[in-house]
Write a structure and sequence with these properties.
The complex is a heterodimer.
Chain A: H1 20-36, H2 45-48, E1 52-54, H3 70-95, H4 101-126, E2 129-130, E3 145-146, H5 148-167, H6 184-201, H7 207-220, E4 230-232, H8 243-250, E5 257-259, H9 261-269, H10 275-278, H11 306-309, E6 316-319, H12 321-333, H13 341-355, H14 360-368, H15 379-390, H16 395-405, H17 431-434, H18 436-445
Helix pairs in contact in A: 1-3, 3-4, 4-5, 4-6, 5-6, 6-7, 6-12, 12-13, 12-15, 13-14, 13-15, 15-16
Chain B: E1 2-4, E2 14-17, E3 23-25, E4 41-45, E5 52-55, E6 64-66, E7 76-78, E8 84-86, E9 94-98, H1 100-103, E10 121-125, E11 133-137, E12 150-153, E13 156-158, H2 166-169, E14 189-195, H3 198-201, E15 212-217, E16 225-239, E17 268-270, E18 279-281, E19 295-300, E20 317-319, E21 333-346, E22 349-361, E23 368-381, E24 386-400, H4 412-418, H5 426-436, H6 458-464, E25 467-485, E26 488-507, E27 516-539, E28 542-563, E29 565-568, E30 579-581, E31 587-606, E32 610-621, E33 630-640, E34 651-665, E35 677-682, E36 685-689, E37 693-694, E38 702-715, E39 720-732, E40 735-739, E41 748-752, E42 755-771, E43 775-792, E44 799-805, E45 808-813, E46 818-823, E47 828-829, E48 832-833, E49 849-853, E50 858-868, E51 871-881, E52 884-887, H7 888-893, E53 925-926, E54 940-941, E55 962-964, E56 967-978, H8 981-985, E57 991-1006, E58 1025-1026, E59 1033-1043
Parallel strand pairs in B: 1-6, 12-15, 37-41, 52-58
Antiparallel strand pairs in B: 2-3, 2-4, 4-5, 7-8, 9-14, 10-11, 12-13, 14-15, 16-21, 16-59, 17-18, 19-20, 21-22, 22-23, 23-24, 24-25, 25-26, 26-27, 27-28, 28-31, 29-30, 31-32, 32-33, 33-34, 34-38, 35-36, 38-39, 39-42, 40-41, 42-43, 43-50, 44-45, 45-46, 46-49, 47-48, 50-51, 51-56, 52-55, 53-54, 56-57, ...
Classes of the chains: A mainly alpha, B mainly beta.
């Protein structure tokens, strides 16, 4: 038989090659979903910031995450659904013979910026992670973990180069870019703001590198208005609806969560105008938060506001302008850049109040209160606490900045186990079995224990 | 009268006048009558006995005596590729059962009837109606690949796919649509022969690595003239209470005392009746029974008071346990099977036409399986040398309301066994659904929002969220044979197995799950083209037999699946266009796999005593890379009939055999190259993603090699016999998607990985302790045991994760058998379980502790048959010793306080659920074990909330939910009575037989509480896990067989 029967082994229904844009968009979508969602198996940090807490199934609120292994969820989303797809886009760009080289350079720079963002999340989550040897399934299924600070340094170098490229302007992804519609000027600001964030994370660990990085980022031009924020605009119909809507409405799990007592009590204590934008009232018209980690009956407490939980089109956030303003206020206080810290602090709080359906008047009244009004002598607590409030629906960033700034100082231990808020998430449970030697080396390098209370290198006590 | 050597009458003996087509059969008493002339020679023949010839003389009455065939030498069995062989010549184990073993006490899936009847065969059935059956021969040899035995009808392989979703087969949501081999109609089965080892199946090359079940169907060849058989069976079934949950009746809905109102802090507060005062409201959101203690004098407002449609709206009810617990839902199942078959035989050919209607309703409401089978087979002697035969089986198989399986809202067993409020009266739920047609659930959010929170009204689930499916299948072949000379013939065969299937699933508006309509259309076709050249010649004492042949196989699948998106527009309208949002891309699957096989066999025998056989098959696969896609599968076997070498009055027959064979498995379609998956577009932008599994262009085939030895003996004129086999098989280069660190960008990478070794022993024995003129007692027993070991895994990998349920895992671990259950274990001090200062067990930090092994230590079946005159009685005891099963039902159900163990009194005579105190009024329980200092534990563990030590939330180690899967079952009993021939003579029949049957009658012994350790998710490699297990159905039946 001379016919080559292996010709039948070509899948007629799935492509082996795709254009660069389709996997790029998928990566953006997945990263946006990850940063927006509440998921017990992944980004559960809305519970750890104590803005939300749980009702009956309250493992996460008590920092018991062994059953649902959130790092595995993060890794899957980031390595598989973001970075691997971006890698495919890179490969497709390399094969693309028709697109102008300048456009390709912009496309590659934007891919690179998203990769930097994604790796920062992984490092901030776990510490050392596979980086230089990651994403090479053909040749290396046991990728080594890179030192977390080394990764940070490389990320800063990469994003610096990307800022250069993107500053040249010109076209990039067009409509395939669902964050900025291919606007390279906005991407340049995003990249600079990302560099700012990388620098600020290092503030307590390596002041000189932090200072240079932050000032360079500021010089390059960070976000200057709400219009510069990186958001993902969800659609009215599944599967492109807001992940919280998916959880609450499509999966009907809304009764698993109530407002956290820590958050509600603080907002009440400072007459925060955002309380009705964050939470509903109980049947008695009151704002009551559930004790953190306790068994809470859904009916007895306030819940997340309907427009956040039940609107399929509510946008998700990747990076918001108000975060930049908080960083700038802090950078001035730390002497990394020059300027008026109070101005940036107030801009940060105001823009957040406006973002949450508030008014300028509300913001002014709020900032006029003595316990909120800016006081340079107490910048750590003010910025830390107000940033925590502002990052209400931004679990990962809220938890991470809380770890770094150590404010607010009133987050409580869990009700059932009396454990404090974790400072880290242990590696995916399968890693020890799948990539043992490298895993063990990484655990040694981060301090010898793979648990929830080892600190990320920048989280200096 | 025709009798055997012992003078017992022989029914069914063929009686033929030599050289004519005139013939008949003896009746049940061995009597016959035939018109013959003086000088005619009458031939009496019967399988297993020597043929006798008598010449007609003056006597009108010829009594024939048929001798036992000297040592059963002529027993013919059907082996691989449909080749018939003398059993004596085989150097490998086969075990045959007669068709009556599968078509007397019938099951919907005939394979289930083999349980306990064949050594080395492990059958695990799903108790779900129409569910699939896991059929494993000689242990698991593949870790993630297919382990199911190959099914073959008359030499032609039958597709046995389930196409169940991977979610379903691993304990997630879904339905078990059954395995396609269940289309095989038991009424049409003549015999079943199981080929166990590689030496037996090597001629199937790449597709029989897991053994083969060879089915020979009935044909018309035994019939002389027209024969009509009518067979009617009616079975009724009910659930076995030993295999279902029992419920405590002391405490109602809640997770613990934290709702703020009423006695025990177990009620919410609200004004339900509108009188302005706060009422006690049942926390209906809670799908657990850890609430307030029942008190008939306490009036409370539960779900009954929330729905304006109900008479009980705004009315309080006494706080008591539901009058009807969940077992109320089980109804009697009915099965009726009607079969009519017509046979006709003669010199020039024979035909058989059979129609069977099978209809079964299940123990859950709105469940039904029906099957129509039309089976035609015919042979035609076209000339002295040319003959043809053909078969066509048309099957229409339809299912309605198959049971939801696994951890899912559509599986009521997950609901009842794990998440239930025992204050619910299931009859009240039923009445509420039938009165309103609405989802009035016991588990609503509350009095104002009465939508379901976790669980629907169980009757709504059954009647509104149901599935249906239909499979139309044609299986058939045509064979043409030409006999060139008496030692050389050629046979060609074309066969097809094709079906179309539609599966539809739905969730109506108002369900806890998103309203949805899902449909999948599957079109499957397999063609086989075979050519055989057969040589058969004797040279003096030497005999030579050889077959050369070729097989070309084409397997095609075409499937499309789509579902609605974001809900439905109109209630009860199940069509894709009723989607609330535009639907996402349908999922299309298509493959076309080709395999070309060339094969040859050579058998030599000397003096009917020494046998040697060799075979070689070469397969070329379309699914492996060109140039490295052809592989050879050799086999060699030998047997010696040592009883021919000496005279012995005791030993009737003795044979020693040895065989070695290699079989393999090619890759599945498209495993060499990655492809991208289409994802629903976002804001009009198309999306594609990388797959989760990285394919591998360097794959090669996987291979099983197996050595077996056997000894067959029969004694005392075949009153006693043994067949013993030992084997060692090794499967290596397993094509396995191994889990990799997700930092590689993928979850899995397909590699050739791992070696699994199985060593086993099988014994089948029969005996006939009593045999008199009128009475015989026969015993048939089977015993098998094996040890499996994973001796190699990919690279440095030491463990492959096969399945995980809330962190309890099924694994292939280096140096351990396939199918190790791992999780957290107890901590031990001096061999005693360590109890912490809070009275709870200390568990290991690691979840990698070995808790069990799904492989049984041994399995055995013992069948006793008694016949007395026209009466036959037999019963089968089926035994499994060892093996482990993890129960997700107790894992959660003990936490939610459903089971009696969670309530009642403790050692002090106080309610267990009372608070733990230092005094004599303390609640709580003392767990068996020791404190850290080694002293016997006397600390009471708190039992007042769902975090009690008996369930998953109370620090219980996973080991607490792993049970011994041993059982002893009365699997089957049948009693039959044939009308005496004298009575029949006056009726228009040639035979009348009544049979009463029972299946799954009694679980005599088991360790696993509240469930049948045998129940599984269905066919697949994930066994030993129960999540939402279905109770076993005991079936009682009556069968009437009429022959004309």
């Amino acid at each position: 038989c001379t016919e080559d029967i292996t010709d039948y082994n070509v899948d007629p229904k799935s492509p082996t090659q795709v254009t660069p844009d389709v996997t790029f968009t998928n990566a953006e979508k997945n990263l946006g979903d990850l940063m927006t969602e509440m998921s017990v198996g992944r980004n559960l940090m809305k519970v750890w910031t104590q803005h939300w807490t749980e009702t009956t199934y309250n493992d996460e609120a008590n920092y018991d995450i062994i059953g649902r292994d959130p790092s595995a969820g993060f890794w899957t989303r980031i390595y598989n659904n973001v970075l691997q797809d971006l890698k495919s886009s890179r490969e497709a760009i390399a094969k693309d013979q028709f697109t102008n080289e300048a456009v390709k350079a912009n496309q590659l720079a934007i891919i690179d910026v998203i990769e930097v963002y994604a790796y920062q999340v992984l490092v901030d989550l776990n510490g050392d992670v596979p980086y230089s040897e990651a994403l090479n399934v053909v040749d290396n299924i046991n990728p080594a973990y890179d030192d977390a600070f080394t990764i940070y340094q490389d990320l800063i170098a990469r994003v610096s180069a990307d800022i250069e490229t993107l500053s040249n302007g010109g076209a990039s992804w067009g409509a395939a870019d669902i964050y900025y519609g291919g606007d390279t000027a906005k991407w340049a600001k995003f990249a600079a703001s990302l560099k700012l964030k990388l620098g600020m994370r290092l503030a307590d660990f390596d002041e000189s590198l932090a200072s240079t990085t932050v000032s360079e980022a500021y010089e390059a031009g960070v976000m200057t208005s709400q219009d510069d924020s990186a958001i993902i605009q969800y659609e009215a119909s599944a599967p492109n609806t807001n992940p919280i809507y998916n959880l609450f409405e499509l999966n009907t799990r809304y009764a698993d969560y109530v407002a956290g007592k820590t958050s509600v009590d603080y907002l009440l204590s400072v007459n925060d105008p955002r309380i009705d934008d964050f939470f509903t009232t109980t049947e008695d018209g009151e704002y009551i938060g559930g004790p953190i980690g306790a068994n809470n009956s859904y009916a007895n407490f306030s819940h997340v506001a309907d427009y956040i939980g039940f609107d399929p089109t509510y946008p998700g956030s990747i990076y918001q302008y108000y975060e930049v303003e908080f960083f700038l206020a802090e950078a001035i206080e730390r002497g990394f850049i020059a300027g008026d810290a109070q101005e940036h602090y107030e801009a940060a709080v105001t823009s957040n109040i406006l973002y949450y359906r508030g008014t300028e008047e509300e913001a002014e009244a709020y900032l006029a209160q003595p316990e909120i009004a800016y006081d340079s002598a107490n910048w750590e607590e003010l910025i830390g606490t107000q940033k925590w409030v502002a990052l209400f629906n931004r679990g990962f960033e809220g938890w991470t900045e809380y770890r770094r700034l150590d404010y607010p100082d009133f987050l409580v231990n869990s009700a059932l186990t009396d454990l404090p808020v974790p400072t880290r998430v242990f590696y995916p449970l399968d890693e020890e079995a799948l990539n043992g030697a490298n895993y063990n080396a990484a655990v040694q390098n981060i301090g010898g224990t793979d648990d929830l209370y080892t600190r990320i290198f920048w989280d200096v006590e | 009268t025709v009798t055997d050597e012992d003078g017992l009458p022989l029914p069914g003996v063929n009686v033929l006048i030599k050289g004519t087509s005139t013939g008949t059969q003896t009746d049940f008493d061995g009597n016959y009558s035939i018109e013959a002339e003086m000088g005619d020679v009458i031939v009496f023949s019967f399988v297993g006995l020597e043929t006798a010839e008598y010449t007609v003389g003056n006597n009108n009455n010829i009594d024939a005596v048929l001798k036992a065939d000297s040592a059963q030498l002529d027993e013919v069995v059907v082996t691989a590729l449909g080749i018939s062989r003398d059993k004596k010549s085989l150097g490998y184990a086969t075990q045959e059962v007669d068709g009556s073993q599968v078509n007397t006490a019938k099951e919907g899936n005939f394979v289930n009837s083999l349980s306990g009847k064949i050594s080395g065969l492990d059958i695990k059935k799903s108790s779900s109606i129409g569910g699939s059956t896991n059929v494993i021969i000689r242990g698991y040899s593949s870790i993630t690949g297919n382990n199911q035995a190959l099914f073959v009808i008359d030499g032609v392989p039958v597709n046995n796919s389930t196409f169940n979703t991977s979610d379903q087969s691993t304990g997630g949501d879904g339905y078990d649509y059954g395995n396609a081999a269940s289309d095989i109609n038991p009424d049409d089965i003549e015999s079943v022969n199981v080929l166990k080892g590689a030496a037996a199946t090597a001629l199937y090359g790449s597709r029989a690595a897991n053994g083969a079940i060879i089915i020979t169907t009935k044909d018309g060849s035994k019939s002389k003239g027209l024969g009509v058989t009518i067979n009617t069976t009616v079975n009724v079934g009910n659930y076995d209470p030993d295999t279902f949950a029992k419920f405590q009746d002391e405490y109602g809905a809640g997770y613990g005392p934290y709702y703020g109102n009423g006695p025990g802090d177990g009620f919410l507060s609200g004004d339900i009746n509108g009188d302005g005062d706060a009422d006690l409201v049942v926390p209906t959101t809670e799908d657990a029974s850890y609430g307030s203690r029942f008190d008939p004098n306490l009036l409370v407002y539960g779900w009954e008071s929330f729905y304006p449609e109900l008479d009980s709206y705004q009315q309080p009810t006494p706080w008591v346990a539901g009058e009807n617990d969940p077992s109320y839902i089980f109804q009697t199942s009915y099965t009726d099977i009607e079969n009519v078959s017509l046979t006709s035989g003669g010199e020039s050919g024979s035909t058989r036409l059979s129609y069977t209607r099978f209809n079964q309703t299940g123990i859950l409401p709105n469940s039904q399986i029906s099957r129509h089978t039309l089976d035609f087979s015919g042979t035609l002697q076209l000339s002295d040398k040319l003959s043809a035969s053909a078969k066509a089986i048309y099957t229409k198989n339809a299912g309605l309301g198959r049971y939801g399986t696994g951890y899912d809202a559509e599986n009521l067993m997950t609901n009842f066994r794990q998440w239930w409020a025992v204050n619910t009266d299931l009859k009240a739920q039923r009445d509420a659904y039938f009165a309103t047609g609405r989802n009035i659930t016991w588990n609503p959010f509350g009095s104002t929002n009465t939508a379901p929170i976790y669980w629907d009204n169980p009757y709504f689930t059954r009647y509104e969220n149901y599935n249906n499916d239909e499979r139309n299948r044609l299986f058939g072949y045509a064979t043409l044979s030409y006999e060139f000379t008496d030692w050389f013939d050629v046979r060609g065969r074309v066969s097809v197995d094709t079906y179309d299937q539609i599966r539809e699933e739905r969730n109506n508006i108002g369900s806890v799950d998103l309203p949805e309509y899902y449909r999948r259309n599957i079109n499957f076709t397999e063609y086989n083209y075979d050519l055989f050249l057969n040589f058969d010649e004797d040279f003096g004492n030497f005999g030579l037999n050889s077959t050369l042949g070729a097989n070309y196989r084409q397997t095609k699948l075409n499937s499309i699946a789509a579902n609605t998106n974001g809900g439905l527009v109109f209630e009860g309208l199940y069509t894709l266009s009723n989607s609330a949002n535009p639907i996402n891309f349908p999922n299309e699957d298509q493959y076309d796999i080709r395999v070309l096989g060339l094969f040859g066999t050579l058998s030599l025998d000397y003096d009917d005593t020494f046998f040697l056989e060799g075979s070689l098959r070469r397969d070329t696969f379309s699914t492996l890379a060109d140039g490295q896609n052809s592989f050879n599968y050799p086999a060699i076997s030998s047997s010696i009939i040592f009883s021919n070498l000496f005279e012995s009055s005791a030993l009737t027959y003795g044979k020693l055999r040895a065989g070695y064979g290699e079989v393999g498995n090619g890759a599945a379609a498209y495993q060499l190259q990655n492809t991208f998956n289409s994802v629903a577009g976002f804001n009009g932008v198309p999306l594609y993603s990388n797959p989760s599994t990285a394919n591998n262009p360097n794959l090669t085939e996987e291979r099983t090699s197996e050595l077996e030895l056997g000894l067959e003996t029969t004694w005392f004129n075949s009153r006693l016999g043994f067949d013993v086999s030992v084997y060692k098989k090794e499967t290596d280069n397993l094509i396995t998607p191994v889990q990799v660190s997700s930092a590689t960008g993928f979850f899995y990478k397909v590699v050739n990985s791992g070696v699994v070794e199985n060593r086993g022993l099988e014994i089948s024995a029969f005996g006939s302790p009593i045999k008199t003129d009128n009475f015989e007692w026969k015993i048939n027993t089977n015993f098998s045991t094996y040890e499996s070991e994973v001796t190699e895994l990919f690279g440095d990998t030491e463990n492959l994760l096969v399945n995980s349920f809330f962190g309890v895992t099924l694994n292939a671990t280096l140096g351990e058998p396939y199918g190790i259950i791992k999780g957290t274990d107890y901590q031990y001090v001096n061999g005693e379980r360590l109890v912490l200062e809070n009275g709870l067990y200390a568990k290991t930090a690691s979840r990698q502790e070995i808790l069990g092994d799904i492989n049984p230590d041994w399995k055995a079946g013992v069948q006793n048959s008694f016949s007395y005159k026209n009466w036959d009685f037999s019963f089968l005891i089926d035994i499994q010793e060892g093996g482990s099963v993890f129960t997700g039902d107790l894992y959660f159900g003990m936490a939610t306080g459903i089971y009696p163990e969670t309530a009642g009194l403790n050692d002090l005579g106080n309610p267990k659920r009372n608070p733990v105190t230092d005094g004599p009024d303390s609640g709580g329980i003392i767990l068996d074990g020791v404190q850290a200092d080694g002293s016997v534990n006397d600390v009471r563990a708190d039992m007042s909330t769902y975090a009690n030590p008996l369930g998953r939330y109370g620090n219980a180690p996973d080991a607490q939910f792993v049970y011994d899967a041993s059982y002893v079952k009365l699997r089957e009993a049948t009693l039959s009575y044939s009308l005496p021939s004298k009575t029949v003579e006056n009726l228009p029949f040639t035979g009348v037989k009544f049979t009463a049957t029972g299946r799954n009658l009694w679980i005599i012994d088991k360790d696993l509480p509240y469930a049948d350790p045998e129940d599984s998710f269905g066919a697949g490699n994930v066994q030993g896990f129960q999540i939402g297990a279905y109770p076993t159905v005991r079936e009682y039946g009556l069968n009437v067989q009429l022959q004309f």
